[in-house]
Design a protein that fits this description.
19-stranded parallel beta sheet; globular; single chain; mainly beta
């Protein structure tokens, strides 16, 4: 093992004294750097074959800029990729592939890990055993264990992802740890398991994990403002799987959106006491939206939540879990007239095409609160439309539409607001928006035969949508000036998001995960996408990408991609086939090719201040024009 920066060698002393710039070196398997100094890699390390020693030991305080390179472990003999010891080490801008743990953080406290991806680890992807350590913009994908494990205390994990791991996405047995804006999708156990006391998870996304979305086994935990959708395995589900599963006590479950989990939305087990559940929306879960295993719910506090079905230990709809229901009964084929204000008191349907097409028409201005109830279409003879919205200024909220041709068609003069509506298992689109200036807020379009959401109108706003497992795109936008933010597009059969004809669309703070086509494909120019994630998208290794800017129309104005992250896409991370694109402050690591430009000279596009590993320009490897 070489210990590069230890004092005692003349050239190493000089190297340590140069504080203005990192020392760039070709490190070898088994090397050690630190304490003190700044270093930058100039090549991958490995494949490393030791089954016992880490590929690289980093002893803080020290700074390691991986410069887009990776630690590579031999598949037969794996050890830790990077072992961090000491205190206040900083490691950023690279990754590790095929190691026992891609990164193991030990030592005292105060480390910082940024822009790092662990892929295909044979154990947990990233393990933190130290205290007061910060992980920011890191990811773990395809691990045989959990994605990111936090065993230490008072650590912070921000803007990070755990995807398609065999264990939990995030496993947190340590105490007083906080997870903020994290994403867990496609993991074989829980999206996040909180086992240590005083744990917090907030403003995060948990979708498509095979057991719980959030498992809270700790006491004094806080689960707030998260999106928890489509968790639980319908083919092998246990009675305890839930979107949010609470077995600890004295905790808060507040302000979460819980949709389409199998079988339960929010579950408090018989081990839970003194827990407060309030301000949540739990809709369209396959069995029960809210359940308390205590017969009288006397040990916990259920505040005001938007829920459909409720249950307490065998007592269906038990009143200790409050739900608001209205007095109105609406039948298949009804039309709700302008200036109406409706609050449902029962499900609608199943509605057949022969007697009702569409199943329900709403003509604005009108307000319809579905109160957690469902409009269902007849499986054998579904109407062409579940709900058809016409006129101007309809407000529709709090319900489920399923089994129809098109779930909801939004027409008329526009300016409609659709909030907390779930459209699933329809033959066509979940939502088809033909008009302008509409708002879709915290909606879900899941498992539909065509698009989850199809925007043919312009100047529409989507804020907080989940589109999972649709037969075509998650979202397709063919209008102009649409604003799309806080979207989760997962496991769709084509692109996660396709901008096919419109211009001046803005996409931000969204996640595009495991889609069969591109994560995001921009066929036109003049669009902007920022602060978004794309991982494990694409079945066509030759052309698919996490972010693909094509701009086929050859418009002079290009697309802007800023502050995005592309992890572990088999084809490309970020690809520009367009003209006058601007790609800046983005990270792409662990992809087949991290960054690619279809122009051999890259002359038409601007690449600035990015963190990439491999890059290519029309057959030329690693061109300097891709920064």
């Amino acid at each position: 093992m070489r210990s590069l920066p230890r004092l005692g060698s003349g050239w190493l002393v000089a190297l340590t004294l140069v504080a203005a710039a990192p020392a760039t070196q070709a490190l070898e398997c088994g090397d050690e750097i630190g304490p003190k100094g700044k270093f930058a890699l100039d090549a991958d390390i490995g494949p490393c074959t030791s089954a016992t020693d880490p590929a690289l030991r980093v002893v803080g305080p020290v700074s390691l800029d991986m410069a887009g390179f990776r630690i590579l472990c031999d598949t037969a003999d794996t050890a830790v990729g990077i072992l961090v010891e000491g205190s206040k080490a900083k490691v950023f801008g690279g990754g590790a592939d095929g190691c026992a743990h891609g990164l193991l953080v030990e030592g005292v406290e105060g480390h910082r890990i940024e822009d790092f991806v662990a892929t295909r680890s044979t154990g947990d992807g990233i393990v933190v055993r130290s205290n007061h350590t910060k992980l920011r913009r890191v990811a773990a994908t395809g691990s045989m264990g959990s994605g990111i494990t936090v065993e230490g205390n008072i650590n912070r994990v921000q803007d990070s992802e755990a995807l398609d791991n065999m264990g939990n996405g995030f496993w947190v047995p340590g105490s007083m740890n906080t997870l903020t804006r994290v994403t867990a999708s496609g993991n074989h156990l829980d999206g996040v398991g909180l086992a240590g006391g005083f744990a917090k998870v907030k403003d995060s996304r948990f979708t498509g994990n095979l057991e719980d979305g959030v498992g809270l086994a700790a006491s004094f935990g806080v689960v707030s403002r998260n999106v928890v959708v489509g968790n639980g395995d319908g083919d092998d589900v246990t009675a305890t799987d839930a979107g949010i599963d609470v077995t600890g006590s004295i905790s808060d479950v507040v302000g979460n959106v819980v949709i389409g989990n199998d079988p339960v939305g929010i579950l408090l087990t018989d081990q839970t006491s003194a827990t407060v559940v309030k301000g949540n929306a739990s809709l369209g879960n396959t069995d029960t939206d809210a359940e308390d295993e205590e017969t009288n719910c006397g040990l916990n506090t259920w505040g005001k939540n938007r829920v459909g079905t409720t249950e307490a230990d065998g007592l269906p709809g038990h009143s200790c879990i409050p739900r608001e229901t209205g007095p109105d009964v609406v039948a298949c084929g009804d039309t709700i007239a302008p200036k109406s204000k409706i609050e449902l008191g029962a499900d609608i349907g199943p509605c057949a095409k022969g007697s009702a097409d569409p199943a329900l028409t709403i003509v604005g201005p009108a307000t319809v609160d579905m109160a957690g109830f469902r409009l269902a279409c007849d499986d054998g003879d579904p109407p062409d439309h579940g709900i058809r919205i016409q006129g101007k200024g309809v407000k529709l909220r709090n319900g489920v539409v399923s089994g129809c041709g098109i779930g909801l068609r939004v027409e008329g003069e526009g300016s409609h607001v659709i909030e907390l509506v779930v459209s699933l298992d329809n033959d066509g689109d979940g939502f088809l928006v033909d008009s302008d200036r509409n708002r879709l807020v915290r909606v879900a379009g899941n498992h539909n035969g065509a698009d989850g959401i199809d925007l043919d109108g312009s100047s529409n706003k989507i804020d907080g949508a989940t589109v999972i497992g649709n037969g075509e795109q998650g979202i397709e936008s063919d209008g102009d000036k649409n604003r799309i933010r806080n979207v989760n597009a997962v496991d769709n059969a084509a692109e996660g998001l396709l901008v096919g004809a419109g211009r001046d669309n803005r996409i931000s703070r969204s996640a595009f995960l495991g889609n069969d086509g591109d994560g995001v494909e921009l066929i036109t120019g003049g669009n902007k996408i920022d602060r978004s994630i794309a991982s494990r998208n694409g079945q066509d290794l030759g052309s698919d990408a996490g972010f693909d800017s094509r701009n086929d129309t050859l418009d002079a104005k290009g697309n802007q991609l800023k502050s995005n992250r592309a992890w572990d896409n088999p084809g490309f991370g970020v690809r520009s086939g367009g003209h006058n694109d601007k790609i800046q402050k983005s990270t792409a690591l662990g992809n087949g090719v991290d960054a690619a430009d279809d122009d051999a000279t890259c002359a038409g596009n601007a690449w600035k201040k990015n963190v990439f590993g491999t890059s290519a320009a029309d057959g030329a490897s690693d061109p300097p024009c891709i920064d």
